[in-house]
Specification:
The chain is an alpha/beta fold and 683 residues long. Helix content is 38%, strand content 18%. Strands 1-2-3-5-4-8-9-10-11 form a nine-stranded mixed beta sheet, with helices on both faces. The protein has a seven-stranded mixed beta sheet with strand order 12-13-15-14-16-17-19, with helices on both faces. Strand 16, helix 18 and strand 17 form a beta-alpha-beta unit. It is elongated, with a radius of gyration of 27 Å.
């Protein structure tokens, strides 16, 4: 039989050492102004929820708290997309004592989740009519999805112990993978220069598109989970009174969600997920799309609340001592959940098991999960289940969209979430730009950017040092840096024309600005960009800093683009307080991602006298095209949730034409791949 001990030992040793080796870098990462700001917000969130939990001291208060948690969690998930109940078995594998049906579950109209349903060939003393306990295994972020060796191992271990098991490929994994662009490739899209995105990248890619439509990937993945559970409960082999859900890592996230969301789940066992959010954010920053629900932290929710929401269901938390999900956070989350379970008279239903390993659904953890379900559903635990790990079902054998493994494509046609996005975008009305009301647009844009219009921060004059460097506070605790270049001829008296260059200018561009008649250029680096960017290694290789910081902000109820617009507004406010600049004509200037920030800031301020002109280069021509594109090369921070439900880039420009007293210049337009694009209309 195959032995995985060497693989486990190497993975665990690397993770164990990381707890020592990461710390010097970690402290340096947290000295960054943007990271300090996020730490401050995350700590304030933690103090608020800890204070609220302190007041929960009897059963009535616990029941009230649980009800509020359930409501807040459902609000964070939001409305689920319309579902389906169709499913098709495309083949059956016979492994002697058990069978595997290869099944395609239509989770949404035209969208199929490819899965594997494991069930014993014989159902014991009850005969073929006996119903068995069943487990829904939700996969973590493996490229192979349902065919990853640890997930296949668990399914075989469970089915040989008397369970039925259903697992399926999450979107972006297994047979549902998403194409992307390889680093260093050319820009033209083709089969040869495309590569499969890894699961995290695929999830974030799709989430960005859905976000423009006011949605998010978590709701779509929850619909997959619910449809899969519905299918499993409809199987004649399954006892609906004995149904559990488990998963590891990203699957741990989804199993915790399902335990809180769906009462048909009777027992829950998330692994390598439950921890305290603030601990995880301090160590790794935020995770990917579906693990960072909009407003989750704003509503006061934490991982332990997902456990509390499931009470009094039997609950097993699986954790690993050397996981990158911090073990101290596991302890705190367990203590919080245990308090609520105790007040709800269900303390004995909650358990925690920690393995001395790193992140992964290793055999010891799988055995603990399986023993938990055996105890819960009164199944005889058999440690000698005789699993042959050298003859596990292979990825090729488990393919659902081929017939009997022959390689012939199934007649079953499956759509994608990108198809859904395109259909939704196509159904949006074309804006009547000529009749857009400026005041209405500004009000709507303020809401979409989630700007804090009630901030008590008072702007102070800019105070450049001898090199022209400046620093100012854009909101409490957030320091923004830049530089002020003031030409010698304009050193005294009032200045007439100022360019605010979002993201910076090189020497040639500064010279061009001077020759164009600007008296000064103020360079501003919005948080997390340019010299103010977070170090790539600050997430220790887990997630990109742009994604991670953006999803942290999303859980806090705002958007990264909105915060960057806030930085620009503060720069303008501070400039107007600086002697000599009070009545200067201000032109906002930006390139590519920064062109969008300039556009939003100009639109927000267009009703007053703060902005005179807009000058953009490399401006994205349309978010409609971005949402429909199979690939893109823009940073995640450009996304404004719900933008396309209100207007697109051309609509904002058309409004600015009527509102600004100065000119609007767009030097060049780009498509989603940052290739030259045709102007959407004439300025």
């Amino acid at each position: 039989m195959r032995n995985y001990s060497l693989q486990e030992e190497q993975a665990n040793r690397r993770r164990e050492l990381s707890y020592i080796e990461d710390y010097p870098d970690m402290e340096r990462f947290h000295s960054h102004p943007f990271r300090r700001y996020l730490d401050k917000r995350n700590t304030e969130y933690l103090v608020r929820r800890k204070t609220a939990l302190r007041q929960v001291n009897d059963k009535a208060a616990a029941m009230d708290y649980q009800a509020k948690v359930l409501e807040a969690f459902r609000e964070s998930v939001g409305q689920l997309p319309a579902g389906c109940t169709n499913a098709y078995v495309t083949g059956t594998l016979d492994f002697g004592s058990y069978l595997i049906d290869k099944v395609c579950i239509e989770t949404m109209p035209g969208i199929y989740a490819t899965g594997s349903f494991y069930y014993p060939k014989k159902r014991g003393d009850g005969g073929d009519d006996k119903q068995l306990p069943a487990l829904l295994l939700l996969c973590g972020h493996s490229n192979e999805g349902k065919a990853h060796v640890t997930y296949v191992s668990f399914c075989v271990e469970a089915v040989t112990s008397g369970f039925c098991v259903l697992t399926f490929d999450p979107v972006g994994q297994g047979e549902r993978r998403v194409r992307g662009v390889e680093e260093g490739e050319g820009n033209e899209s083709s089969e040869s220069n495309s590569a499969w995105l890894d699961p995290v990248a695929a999830h974030c890619f799709l989430d960005q598109k859905l976000s423009l439509l006011g949605e998010h990937l978590g709701a779509y993945m929850m619909q997959d989970n619910i449809a899969a559970l519905t299918y499993m409960l409809a199987r004649p082999e399954v006892d609906s009174a004995r149904v559990g859900v488990t998963g590891n890592s990203g699957g741990g996230t989804m199993s915790a969600y399902m335990g809180a969301y769906d009462d048909r789940v009777k027992a829950v066992a998330p692994c390598c997920y439950i921890t305290e959010l603030r601990s995880m954010l301090y160590r790794l920053m935020a995770q990917d799309a579906e693990q960072c629900l909009p407003g989750f932290m704003e509503r006061g929710l934490d991982h332990s609340d997902l456990v509390t929401a499931a009470a009094p269901k039997p609950y097993h938390i699986g954790a690993a001592m050397f996981d990158f999900f911090p073990i101290d956070g596991v302890r705190d989350a367990f203590i919080e959940a245990k308090k609520l379970y105790r007040l709800l008279d269900a303390e004995e239903q909650l358990e925690l098991h920690v393995v001395m390993k790193g992140h992964g659904f290793w055999k010891e953890m799988r055995e603990q999960v399986l023993q938990f379900f055996c105890r819960t559903f009164e199944v005889q635990w058999n440690s000698e289940n005789g699993v042959d790990y050298a003859r596990l079902p292979s990825e090729t054998e488990l393919l659902c969209l081929t017939v009997d493994g022959s390689g012939d494509e199934s007649a079953l046609a499956s759509g994608s979430l990108l198809d859904i996005v395109r259909k939704k975008v196509g159904s949006l009305p074309v804006m009547q730009r000529s009749v857009q009301n400026g005041a209405e647009v500004r009000e709507r844009l303020n809401g979409l950017l989630q700007l804090n219009t009630e901030s008590e921060l008072k702007y102070s004059p800019l105070e450049p040092d001898q090199n022209g460097s400046i620093a100012f506070e854009s909101e409490s605790g957030m320091i923004i840096t830049g530089a002020l270049h003031r030409w010698s001829a304009a050193e005294s008296g009032e200045l007439q024309r100022i360019c605010i260059a979002i993201g910076g200018m090189n020497e040639a561009e500064l010279a061009r600005a001077k020759n164009s008649g600007y008296d000064a250029v103020l360079i501003v680096h919005p948080r997390g960009t340019g010299p103010a960017a977070l170090e790539p290694g600050c997430t220790f290789g887990m997630f990109g800093p742009e994604l991670a910081s953006g999803y942290n902000v999303r859980m806090l109820g705002q958007s990264l683009q909105g915060l960057r617009v806030t930085d620009v507004l503060a720069a303008i406010g501070s400039l107007k307080q600086t002697p000599g600049f009070e009545r200067a004509e201000v032109t906002l200037c930006g390139q590519e991602e920064h062109a969008l920030t300039a556009l939003y800031a100009a639109a927000v301020l267009s009703g007053g006298h703060s902005i005179h002109s807009l000058h953009a280069a490399g401006l994205l021509a349309s978010f409609r095209a971005f949402a429909e594109a199979e690939q893109h090369k823009y940073d995640a921070g450009i996304i404004v949730p719900g933008l396309l439900l209100a207007f697109d880039i051309p609509d904002l420009l058309q409004m600015l034409q009527a509102e600004l007293s100065g000119s609007i210049i767009v030097e060049s337009w780009l498509d989603p791949m940052k290739q030259p694009a045709e102007p959407p209309f004439d300025l």
